[in-house]
Amino acid sequence: MKKYYFTILLTISLLATNKFMSFAEDDKLHNDNSGGVVRLQEDKTSEVKWRLDWEENFDGGDFDQKRWSKIPRNGAEWGRHMSDFSDCYQVKDGKLILRGLRNEHLPNDKSPYLTGGIYTKGKVNFADGRIEIRAKLGKAKGAWPAFWLLPSDNTQWPRGGEVDIMEHLNSDDFIYQTVHSNYTVNLKMIKNPPSGSKAKIDPDNYNVYAVELNKDDITFFVNDKKTFVYPRIETDKEGQFPFNREFYLLLDMQLGGSWVGEINPDNLPVEMQIDWVRFYKKEK
Questions:
Q1: pLDDT confidence bin for 48, thresholds 50/70/90
Q2: Residues near 78 by Cβ (< 8 Å), separated by ≥ 6?
Q3: What is the model's pTM?
Q4: Beta carbons of 58 and 94 less than 8 angstroms apart
Q5: Number of helices and strands (H, E) in the chain?
Q6: All structural domains of the chain
């Protein structure tokens, strides 16, 4: 009997080991023979290969202005403190640093706070692929860093769609991942299907935030773990899935607002560090 039980335990152990090794091979980067980088993702029926199409490593002393522009101030809550003030931006050691700070140096600017953000609007567009961003988020009361996508054709919000890859509030150990459209905003259809979800992060270290823009769904990840899927569904209601289009990418530090709450100026300056941005296309 002891030998019989030992055989069963050994079999279970081998099966578990094989399963673990199979999962460990998923969602990794591999080099192909041509020197390119391929991301492999496997499911039960097929293997999806994503080939690196575009990347930003923030090398040098400033961000590449052929790819990025500073986000101008605007009337939305997230944009009311946006500034081109140099202290809100820094590129150092291969990282982009975006800050939120008290306005102590611009007497002609009546905003009490200043925030930094960049976007690819009019310069780089993304569609039908996978975007990844490796970043370390700052923590402060009233801090609201975000990575998100808006339509390149400037279709009026929310009809053109918005994809929030990551939004972080205050000092939370989780982030929000959400989509917005006419269907979710104007028609208030946020439960069928669910329009957003929360995902755990390590708030003290770097995490990788990702989204896949597919023909029939938007799929979100944190540290290569699938966290949320928003599908196209059959419906007679307008604008449920406007996401098959080109988008530009926004990376910004935001401060204050009705959602994140009041700002504690004693917590400032607050900063987030962005290590890299990568965009993958499916291999044909």
A1: confident
A2: 144, 146, 252, 254, 257
A3: 0.86
A4: yes
A5: 2, 18
A6: 52-282 (2.60.120.200)
